[in-house]
Design brief:
- Strand 1 and strand 2 form a beta hairpin.
- The chain has 88 residues and is mainly beta.
- The termini are far apart.
- Strands 3-2-1-4-5 form a five-stranded antiparallel β-sheet.
- The protein is 15% helix and 39% strand.
- It has one helix and five strands.
- The protein is elongated and about 40 Å long.
């Protein structure tokens, strides 16, 4: 099963080899993610991430829906929602 997790782009950078990379926040946990598949994405946008690659740009409402579904399935092991940091 493939799992895509929503996150919010905090920073966008070009790598040494010219690939677009960015720092994405997943409820306060930040990871460097490849943004090559979403060239239209900007800082502040939400993306769906699978194995280190942003595979699509999504809106905040969709990000919250996906996060809620992951929480309901207990797939997040206590992680916090990217848009609701005080959620438990």
């Amino acid at each position: 099963m493939c799992l895509g997790v929503p996150g919010q782009i905090l920073r966008i950078d070009e790598s040494a080899i010219g690939m677009t990379m960015g720092v994405v926040s997943f409820g306060g946990v930040t990871k460097e993610i490849c943004l090559a598949y979403v060239p239209e994405a900007l800082v502040g946008d939400y993306v769906l991430v699978h194995v280190g690659f942003a595979i699509s740009k999504i809106d905040e409402e969709n990000a919250n829906e996906i996060w809620a579904a992951l929480e309901e399935m207990d797939e997040l092991s206590g992680a916090e929602s990217p848009t609701r940091p005080d959620a438990s």
